[in-house]
Structures are given as C-alpha cells and as structure tokens.
Amino acid sequence: MERRRFLNKLFAVALPGGVLGIVLQRSRARAETSGYDASKHYYGMGIQVDKCIGCGRCVEACKDENNVPREPFFFRTWVERYVIKGNGEVVIQNIDKTISATAEVIGERDFLRSFFVPKLCNQCDNPPCVQVCPVGATFKTEDGIILVDEKRCIGCRYCIQACPYGARYLNPTTQTADKCTFCYHRVVKDLLPACVEVCPTQARIFGDVRSTASPLTRFKRMNKLHVLKPYLNTEPKVAYSELDGEVR
Amino acid sequence: MNGPFIDRLYDLLKQVTGYIYPNEIEVHWSILVVVYPYLTGLVAGAFILASLVKVFNVKEVQGVYRLSLLTALAFLLIAPLPLLLHLGHPERAYEIFLNPNFTSAMAMFGFVYAWYLMVVLVLEIWFTYRRDVILWAREEKPPMRWIHRVITLFSNDVSERSLEVDRKVVKGITIIGIPSAFLLHGYVGFIFGSIKANPWWSSVLMPIVFLFSAIVSGIALVILLYMVITPLRGGKIDMACLDKMSSYLFYAVIVDFSLECLDFIHRLYQSEESIKILSEMVMSKLFISLVIIQVLLGMVLPLALMVGIRLLRVNEELRKLLYFVSVILIQLGIFATRWNVVIGGQMFSKSFKGLTVYKMELTGIEGLLMTLGLLMLPFVVLAILLKIFPAWEWPKKHAAVEPAM
Amino acid sequence: MKIFFSRIPDSLVRLCIVFAVLIGIILVVRAVLPSSLTDHTLQVQSTVEREAAKPLRHAGSEVCADCHEEYQVKKVGYHRNLSCETCHGPAKEHAENPTVVKPSLPRMREFCVRCHSYNPSRPTGFPQINPAAHNPLKPCVTCHNPHDPKPPTVPQECQGCHAEIARTKALSPHVQLECTTCHNVPEGHKTSPRSVVASIPRERDFCGKCHGKNAEVQETPKIDLLTHGEKYLCWQCHYPHMPEVK
User: Fold this and answer.
1) Residue A177 to residue A149: CA distance in whole angstroms
2) Domain residue limits, chain A
3) At a CB cut-off of 8 Å and minimum separation 6, what does B120 contact?
4) Number of continuous H segments (helices) and E segments (strands) in chain A
C-alpha cells in the first residue's frame, strides 16, 4: 500500500515535469545565410521546346556542376527525342548515346513531327515526394526549391517511387535520394543553374516567378504554357511552351 | 562507385524495351520489400483467426488460439528486418520515430506497427498466458524459471479476481485488436495505394485487397503450422478444428478472389491510358508470377480443391492431404501476389512507353539467400516462443491444473 | 479511490508501472536529445546552408569579360547567345586561378559537330552540316571563328540551315525543283533569317502552272483547278516537300 502510494506520487511529478522539459528545450533558432533573403524569391523555369537542339550540353554541365555520377543511370536532367511517325506511332529515345545504342534509326520519309524535350525536376508546388518522405528529409524551401537533406535521408526510396516524372534517383555514393536542385548553390549567389547557363539556344529560361519584368515573365506572356502530367495536380513550376500532346 | 552494381545496370539496359525514364533503370524496391508485406500479412491473418475464438466464441478453433497468437508475434518481430536491411542508411532508421513526417504514410505506419506490437499483441499474449506462466515458474528450474518470472513481472497473483480481470482484458484487447489488425495490413496497402504516380498501385481497392490476401495467407499459415507441428509432437489432428479453419479460409479466399477479379475487370473496363503498358507487362513480364502462380495455382486451384472437398464429402485422410496442398499453394500464391504488386509496379515506366526487368541476385543483402533466410527466421522465433509459451496441452512435468483460457 | 485501487490486481499494476517507465524513458530521451536531432526547422536551415555552400564549377559568362576580349567579339556574332562555358566547359577554377588552371579549348571537329551535325529532329533554320561531306577532316575553326562563326562564304544552298527539308524533298517527286522555284528568297534572308523571311506561294494558280489541266509540263500529275479542293490552297493538304496523294 505504501509502495503504491509512493509510486503514484512519483509519477504525478515526473510525467508533467518531463513534458515541461521538452517544451522548454525546443529552441526556435534563427540561422541566416549571408545577404541572401529567401523570402524575396520564388523560382521557376520555362522551357521552349522548339528551341532545343538536343545537343546535351545541359546534361553534361549539370553532371559537372553537381557531381552527379557519370554513368547513364543517374540524371538530374536529361533530354528526350520524340519522333511522331506518319502512321501515328510515337518513338521516344534518350539523346544519351549509351542508352539509345540499340534505338531504331528512323528515316525522314516516316517523319510527321520530331523534336527534343529537356526534362528535370519540376520543383512542384504540391510535391508528392515531400508528402511521402517518412523523416521529412526532403522539403520545399521558402524560395520554392525542393531539397534533400542527405544527412537525414534514410534511403527508403519512397520519394523516388512517388515522383511521377522520374526526376529522382538514389545516389550510389551517398546512398540517399538525389535530384535537381535548380543549382541552389548558384541561385543564391544570383547565378543561373548550370543547364540554363550553357544552353546554346536559350531553350531553358530561369527566373523568379513573381517578377514582373524578366525573361521568364515574357515567356509566360507570349506562349501557351503546358506542364507535365497536370492531372496529377503536382503543380509543377517548370512550364513548357510548344509541348506536344505526345510528350510523357 | 560499386563496380558490380554498375555492371548489372549496364546489363539491364540491354533488356529494356520501349522507352523508360533514365532514372528508372534501377529497380528501387527489391525482393526485401516483397517479403515485408508478406510477413505482416501473415501477422494480420493469424491474429484474425485468433480473434474468432475470443470474440465470436468459435469453440472448434480453440485449440489453435495460442498458436495463432504466437505465430503472429513471431512474424511481427521479424517483419521489420527486411525493411531495415533494404534502407540506404539503416543506422538512421530511428529517425522515423524521432522525427516523423506526419503526412507520410510510411512514417505513420511505424506508429501503427508499434501500437499493434506493444498494445495489442504483446498484451494479449501476456494476459492469456499470465496465470499459466506463474504456475509453471513455481515448479521449474532456472533458466526457464527466471525467464518466466521476468515475464510475469515477478507477480504471484493467481486469485480469482486477477483471472477475471485477465479474461475481461483479453476480450477487450481482442475487440480493439480486430480493427487494429485491419489497420495494420490495410495501411501497408495504403502505402502503395496512395502513390498517384504509379497506376499499378494507385487504387482505392489496394488496402482492401492487401487486407484480404493477408487474412487468407494468415489462416493458411496457421493451418499449415497446425498440420505440421501436431504430428511432430505426437498429437492427433483435430478434424473439427481443421475443417472449421479451412471453411474460414474458403470464405476468405472467395472474398479475396472476388476483389482481385473486381480490380481486374475495373481496370479493363475503365481502359485508362496506362492499360496498354500494364497489359503488356502482365502478359510478358508478369505472366508466370501473375497468371500462373497467383491466379491459377494460388487461387483457382485451391478454391477448386476446397469446393471439391465440400461437394464430394471426401474422407478424412484425403481431406488432410488436400488441405495441406491447398495451404501450400495459397502461400505461394500470396507471395506471388506481393511480388506482382511490388515488382510489377516497377517493371513499367511512368512514361507508359517502356518495360524494364528485375534481376534478383543470389548473394548480397538484397539477394535470394538473404530472402530465404528472412523467411525462415520467423519459424525459428516461433520455435523459441513455443518453448517459453507452450501452446498445447499442459506440460506434463507440471501438476495438472484447469486451463485458464 | 483507495478501494478502487485495491481492487486492481497486483499484476495489472506491475504492467502499468512497466508501461509508465517505458513512456517516461521515451519522453526523457526526447527531452535530453540535442535540438539538432529533434528540431525540424533547424535541420531544414542547416540543409539549406549546406546546399548553398556547395562549390561552384561554372563561373558564369560575365566573369570572362574581365580578361578576354573574345567576349566582345562574340557579343555580335551568331554565337552571341552562347555562354563561354558552353564550349569551354566549367571554368570557375580558371577564373579563380587563371594562370594555373586552364579551361578546355575544343578544336576537334567532334565538338562542333555535336550541335551542328545534321539531325532531323533539330528545329528548322538551325545551321546543320553533314560532317562526312562538309570539309571532312578539316578542323571547323580553320574556316569558322568560334567567337564570330560567320561562314566564309554566304551559303548558296538553303540546305545549310534547312537540312531536314532538303533531305525530305530529295526523297520526294519534287526532288528536281530548286527551293527558289516556289520560294522567293530576298538576299537579306541568308544573313538575317528571322527578320528577312522567304515567301511562300499564296495562289492555287501557282501550283497550277505544273499541275493544272493546261500546264505545259508533261510528266506531272494533273488536276482540275476549278473543282479539286477548291476552297483550299494546295499546300493546306499536300506537303510541298513530300507531296503525297491521300
């Protein structure tokens, strides 16, 4: 009886005490980066499909800039080639020669339409990858870019399954999920992402979606815009002009 | 960079047909992620069978009550292992519990799992065995004596009041246990079913189909264990129990089969954009595992056998043989079901224009040998549990006492 | 209250104590862990900082202007929209250590050919050559200054920029027609293609010159201009570069 009363009293004190401790421990730290104010920006990209020549310099520059494994199985951005034949058949190939080594060569006689489509992470505003990450290692920053915390990612690959665009891969070195970050480390220094920087035909346009005067704003004014898989409601921030209906 | 891993990817590249997004060449969720829902399914099914005794007072199945509970526990303890092994960083696995993302089904499932393990299963077993373990501990030699003493938390209370409370608590736990078991495996189905990016997985039916196939596999497992262990310990198979369990299995298979037919018909009828590539995948990559193993061998044949048993009033010996064959086929079928869902969902590209392949390795963390090991492990754990918590007649070395429950 | 507690069996009490201890341990552990492990806002912040601090490999175009006059030359030529690093590769290290680290200096044909070799999927108007036919084995830079890549002579054939159309036409019944047969090409089009455009025929009678009932040419298919597709211009159905019949 005595023992029981003592134990009861002990827990009456210990439990609320523990809870109070937790509340006091949580500090809302305010860390700053030097000079860059994330709340003043919100990034998006535009892609003019009709300007892409499929040279692949963007893919190479991205791999250089971001230390992406060179093997043709890990891409932060890639370019697809579409050939719509006269008989309606659609042939899609990757411009990477290793991947499309056995791809069919189509003669001009069969062509109805043909073009290149660059692809990358769409930095969705309603990202399914962020929704499913069990530990919250992937998140959307204040300036609209989806990042992955490679120190906390447990490598469960759920986000890779959830991305409808195939934009994510598992980095074989770090064993964590990886993807295009719009070259965040360049963007905060007012530079362009590597792929936009080296594109010879300015098929890629990068900018602040909230700006009123920028190449991106003009792009959005003068073109009919499309996004990939709009019916999935991921709200992608990469907009394509002249996007053919056959593009997947 | 891992040389053999990259070489394997180059080999896979040669077998891709059509167009796949370049990052899709690597199959991300391998055989380990197939084993996981298979094991948790067995848990849910075994538990549901046990609940039939307590909640619906099905007397015939009383004999396998304790076995079902212990089976559920053995599989529940081992099920997280394949997941842990599959992670890129298993040493960070604690993050799921420390910093869960509340919008993530996978994270929330960790808590459902913990709830089910700690509050439902462990407690039900504890209360079921409490009195017996106290009594056994009085007469045993160490080390078993100490194991049992620790389990009972050093209590010695076998009063009427305590037994009454035990019975009430078990009944209560079973009642919340049934929806908890539904939640446990339905949730695994939801983890797949909520992925809108993947049309093979994304379906409202997915949690329901997972749940019923879990029930089927769990009941089949308990029947299998009963039929194997009983002769091994020199006992006689109780045909009334076996027939009753098989009839529950029969109903469950009918429901499961109907649900899968519904899914199939629904997909074909709606004929959404993905139907072309999915049909191509089913008829080429998944033909053997789906059409032959999952449907024909795993569902149609056992159903036919069970219908035959009922219609033809088969004799006891033949019945036992047919039951045995059926439950083995069902286990194969349900494993194939999990394979078809997990691996199947990754065999086609999200561009809907291409197919890839999955090559399982023999050795390595995600290889066949590891998988077989993981599938054997719960039986080892069950053997240990049966030693600590004997599930059948009162152990002969102890003084005879009326069974508690 | 006391009576209620005394009616609870001893084992149940022990169980509750065990659970309470477990929950207590969890709470205490949670409380004593450093905030870097538990505060999600902090984790997000540190990830953002870590990401922002990653090393740059590309310098960006403007930096090159400080030292290299080629930048000014490039500004007005056909390559004005190219970044220096498009051809010279990532040059951040060079920008920081100009004398020690040099960027790549691509002089091999394979390099230019990557953008300029003929590919039917490339947009029309983009200058493309057949590398096997166009001065094979000679480095491109022999005739074309990469920073002002004006061709040494004005292209005589439309094929230089409209290779896909030319090749398609070469397979068609119109193979013997010159481009200028149907298109009026002002001289300015070859140097300023987007501002000075070539014309296309706007009358049915134009095609009628060869395909009408009274045409002088013998070998062409003939139709009655008055009735055949009378509401339409001919090329609204028949692609002139591969004029197939339905």
Assistant:
1) 9
2) 39-241
3) B47, B173, B176, B177, B180, B181
4) 7, 11
Cβ contact, residue pair A81, C121, below 8 Å: yes
Please provide the average confidence, as pLDDT, over all residues in chain A.
89
- Tell me which chain B residues have a C-beta less than 8 angstroms from the C-beta of C18: 153
CATH topology of domain A39-241: Alpha-Beta Plaits (3.30.70)
**Does A95 reach chain B within 8 Å, measured CB to CB?**
no
Give the angle C87-C93-C94 at the CA atoms, nearest 5°.
60
Residues B149, B161: Cα–Cα separation, whole Å: 20
pLDDT (tens digit per residue) in B120-158: 999 999 999 998 998 888 888 888 888 898 888 888 888
Please state the φ and ψ torsions of residue A205, each to the nearest 5 degrees. -125, 130
B351 burial class (0-12, 13-18, 19+ CB within 10 angstroms)? buried
The total number of residues shown for chain A amounts to 248
C202-207 long-range contacts, CB within 8 A, separation 24+: C202/C233, C203/C233, C204/C233, C204/C234, C206/C182, C206/C234, C207/C234, C207/C235
Task: Pick the residue from chain A with its C-alpha nearest to B9.
Answer: A73
Strand pairing of B354-355 and B17-18?
A: antiparallel
Q: How far apart are CA B240 and CA B246, in angstroms?
A: 10
B153 touches chain C (CB under 8 A): yes
Residue with tokens 């396998």: B64
Of C74, C55, C58, residue with least CA distance to A192? C58
Among candidates B323, B340, B372, B66, which has minimal Cα distance to B220?
A: B323
A201-212 pLDDT, tens digit each:
999 999 999 999
Please count the residues of chain B.
405
What ipTM, to 2 d.p.? 0.92
pTM of the full structure: 0.90
The dihedral built from the CA positions of residue C182, C187, C193 and C197, taken in this order, carries a sign that is negative
